Amino acid sequence: MKILISGGGTGGHLTPALALADTFRQMRPDLEIHLVGAERGIESQILPQHPYPFTLLPLQPIYRRQWWKNLQWPVLAVRLWRRIGALLDEVQPTLVVGTGGYASGPVVYHAQRSDIPTAIQESDARPGIATRWLSGRARQIHLGFPEAQARLRPGDRTEVFTFGNPITPPQPGDRAEAVKALGLDPALPTLLVFGGGQGARAINYAVAGVLEHGHLEGMNLIWGTGVANYPGLSGYARPGKVVVQGFLDPMAPIYRATDLVVCRAGALTIAELCAWGKPSLLIPLPTAAANHQLENARAMAEANASVLMEESSLTPHTLAAAITQLISDSARRQSMARAALGRGRPTASRDVVSRLLTLVS
């Protein structure tokens, strides 16, 4: 039997797809996993590094502001529908799971029209367009936030669960060894900065300014720039001091080495921070749909697990000041770490897969 998992376009939708794939393999090694993503998504570079067969389709996002870019969809839809149909005929999945993003919706919809059981994993508190559209015919919906259920209209046969967002569970290990493996000094605190697979331009510019002014002396830096931004920022790498990568994968050794995280406030990122118990400085993406990242960050700040900094106040100076204050206050970081752990759902992947397996005969 085969499970087809479709999701991607961004790291926030690819991460749960890979977490579910790994958990399926652990719990039911007899099942075959096939992943589906978009040709233009981050998955085109990441999936070849994983042990699963995969297919990349000519999928495009739906543009909310630049609406004229959607005019290509009528022509694309015909070709895409045939490609998805051929893929389903070839793989013949017992179950299709969508993890969101523009790489998910068309595949799940085609599977529903073909009477293949489907399930949806929705990461955010505010469900996306595809989840709202497809929820009526899904057999299961798995939510990262309970608030999302009020915005859905499940069908009569649809089961809804809230187990948290599926991530790769934390892997215990020695911090000093993890720092050494990255070529850094374990005697120094380690700062991790990233903006997701596509990077975060505002954060990258601020970090570059901080480095140029020498404000991060006395600490290690692991900097995930985003794949597209890496060529222009790789020159900031310094042996034994600053590690610069386009996409951070795998994350386990990096989280193990990290003492403070600066990042966006996407749902999957927050799930990882909480599961690992990492104190964080969150800078929400201001253009996120319905400003959901700001709500995520506020919830973390109110729980004393994070510090919130809105992008409108982000400069090299304000970023350096906030980082320095947190790095120098180990007691506060420990308190934030405990608060983050209290919100963690590290077993979410196993909980979700346990329910999904009830759909596989």
Given this structure, which CATH class of the largest domain is correct? Alpha Beta
Radius of gyration: 20 Å
Proportion in helices: 25-40%
Q: What's the overall geometry?
A: globular
- Assembly form of the protein: single chain
Residue-averaged pLDDT: 91
Q: What is the number of helices? A: 14
The proportion of residues in beta strands is 15-25%
Condensed summary:
It is built from 14 helices and 13 strands. It is of the alpha/beta class and 361 residues long.
Structure description:
With 361 residues, the protein is α/β, with parallel strands linked by helices. It folds into two domains: 179 residues, Rossmann fold (3-Layer(aba) Sandwich), CATH 3.40.50.2000; 168 residues, Rossmann fold (3-Layer(aba) Sandwich), CATH 3.40.50. The chain is 39% helix and 16% strand. The chain is built from 14 helices and 13 strands. The strands form two sheets. The protein has a seven-stranded parallel beta sheet, with helices on both faces. Strands 10-9-8-11-12-13 form a six-stranded parallel beta sheet. Helix 10 packs across helix 13. The model has no long low-confidence stretch (mean pLDDT 91).
